Amino acid sequence: MDQQILLAPRDSFAVYMVSMEERGACQKNTRRNTQGGIIKYPVTPDGRYFVVRGRLWRMSDPALPEDRRQALTSELMAARREVAAAQRTNDDGRLAAARAAVHEAKVALGERGPVWWKDGEPDYNRHMAKNTPYAGWHAELAE
Hints:
- By secondary structure, this protein is an alpha+beta fold.
- Helices cover 35% and strands 20% of the residues.
- The chain has helices at 66-89, 92-109, 135-142, and strands at 3-7, 16-20, 25-27, 29-32, 38-41, 49-52, 55-58.
- Strands 1-2-3 form a 3-stranded antiparallel β-sheet, with no helix packed on it. It has a two-stranded antiparallel ribbon with strand order 4-5.
């Protein structure tokens, strides 16, 4: 796999993107903050995880066709909205069903369940980066 790490200036808002030949485009992970601005998280050099507050979170399967990924993401967002609605109404049955729908969508996206890579490397989802083989890479981000 041809990889290239593109680094922005090393400040607290640096953007780290991984260019992956097999995916054909730059990969980045973005989220919106409460003010509507986009927050960008560091992505590991192999494109398997993004990092938030030092914790690794598995990326979606890059082999998913874009239309399928978008449909699953829409399902995930709807399920998350349903979780919030169930919490507001204190409906335990509705909450359990909504959380199950979130889990199903995440498994379908490749963010949970069996790993989507085929090289036999273990899954470090939800691990602290400093306790994984990504520790050196993550430490360099803070420099």
